[in-house]
Amino acid sequence: METFQPVAANGLLDRRAFLRGGAALAAAMTGYARAEPLSEAPWSKGPGELVPPYGTPSKHEKAAARTLSNPKGEPRTQHARTPHHLLQGMATPNGLHFVISHAGDPEVDPAQHRLAIHGLVKRPLVFTIEALARYPMVSRFTFVECGGNSSPLFSPEPIQATAQALHGLSSCAEWTGVALSTLLEETGIDAKARWVIAEGSDSPHLHRSVPLSKILDDAIVALYQNGERVMPGNGYPLRLLLPGWEGNMNVKWLRRLELAEQPAMSYYESRTYAPILPSGKAYRFYFVNEVKSFITQPSVGYGMKGPGFYEISGLAYSGNGRITKVMVSADGGKTWAEAALQEPVLAKCFTRFRIPWQWNRGPAVLQSRAWDDAGNVQPSRPEIIAARGQGSRVAPVTAFISQHYNGPTSWAVDANGGVRHVYA
To answer: Within 13 Å of residue 150, how many CA atoms lie on the same side as its CB?
Structure first.
């Protein structure tokens, strides 16, 4: 059998082993045995279940579900977090895409819903869903991430929580709809316009201010999510999509776009998403979700069952562009090895990274660090804490005042294969 030489401490192997010795590496990882004649399983002896009109996952995959912060529907914000540790690839299934609803999901009748574009435009217009569906469609394969995603890592002490609890307020999908630049060609733009105020039709009428330059760049009115109509929790029948920009700005249940000279200074942009920095200034209008990565397997709740070959896998993404490199460490950042990036690698989109690992029951601390094609590098935890400050906890346990944590996540592996969240 081919041998694989470590390229960094604690058994990290060359990423090219996936290609150079794929069959041998797979055999080492899976430990398969020589094939024997197969017996007839019970499900092979008779007809199966009736094919349903809309497919759902197997009953054996019930663990792959979102966790809910407010399962009883109390009058407060509701969070549904994506189970990253149980998923593979780059796309998030629609039913597992994260959701944040400040007042529940409104039951919108698409036949009655309207989108108005007004303000500093030459010809104010109101669009029905049917009218929007007649325009040329474009797709954006992109992630959406809440500004508060990963905020538990601002805690002074590491919180023992899964990748789902720490990073589950981010997801990635193919979004299809009408380019907003196309709709603004219809309305015309007043020369004084600099901002677009987007408002949803939920009961709080959540609204955010977006620079007109972003609207004309790659923003769309999304009608479809991974090929089917946008899910209710993600803004049915239409939402604003701003690739790479903070989730709260991607206004759901979109009903109004007002072009203006100044931002609205709404509740969310002047208070909720305006944390105070160590300098005393408010961190306001920061827009872009910066370059970031985290390991999903192994992680808390998803450890190893014995020594041998494993694959370290995770997600990297950047609101500024395409991921170009991910480095992985198994000794808390002392030595590093480059991971393989799984194709396709797209701008402003989840990128799956992988690296083979030979674990011998020794202690290990796993980390990842990402780079993007704009030259940005994922910061260390001390760097991000110095820039953004130390978080203070508020209820529930996974909510923190600080925003936009994009430092590393460290998983410590013990001799039994168990995983803890640590700071390294």
So the answer is: 23
User: Which structure tokens are listed for 296?
Assistant: 């999903």
Is the pLDDT at 401 greater than 60? The verdict is no
* CATH code 3.90.420.10 for 114-272: yes
Q: What is the mean pLDDT of residues 393-412?
A: 72
Sequential DSSP letters for 287-298: -B---EEEEEES
The CA distance from 292 to 360, in Å, is 29
78 — pLDDT class (breaks 50, 70, 90): very high
Q: Around Cβ 232, how many Cβ atoms within 10 Å?
A: 17
Contact 374, 320 (CB under 8 A): yes
* 246: nearest Cα among 290, 193, 312: 290
Residues 259-282 have a mean pLDDT of 89
Domain ranges of the chain: 114-272, 292-422
Amino acid identity at 309: F
Alpha-carbon span 298 to 311, nearest angstrom: 8
pLDDT interval class at 399 (50, 70, 90): very low
Tell me which H or E stretch contains 413: strand 410-413
Assess contact for 413 and 419: CB atoms under 8 A.
Answer: yes
Which residues, other chains included, contact 207 with Cβ-Cβ below 8 Å and sequence gap of 6+? 197, 198, 199, 200, 251, 256, 264, 266, 268
Amino acid at 31: G
The strand ranges marked E within 185-237 are: 195-200, 207-211, 220-225, 228-229
* Tens-place pLDDT, residues 12-65: 999 887 666 555 565 555 556 667 888 889 999 899 999 999 999 999 999 999
- Confirm whether pTM is higher than 0.70: yes
* Strand pairing class (170-179; 195-200): unpaired
Distance CA 147, CA 155 (A): 16
Q: What is residue 53's three-state secondary structure?
A: coil
Q: Degrees (nearest 5) of the Cα angle 53, 56, 58?
A: 130
Measured CA distances, 252 to 109, 115, 183, 215, 236 (Å): 14, 12, 18, 15, 7
Summarize pLDDT for 203-219 with one digit per residue, the tens: 999 999 999 999 999 99
Q: Is the peptide bond prior to 136 cis by the omega test (within 30 degrees of 0)?
A: no
Residue 367 tokens, joined: 């980390």
If one looks up domain 292-422 in CATH, what number appears?
2.60.40.650
Best CA proximity match to 153, nearest among 413, 332, 411: 411
- The answer to whether 84 and 168 are in contact (CB under 8 A) is yes
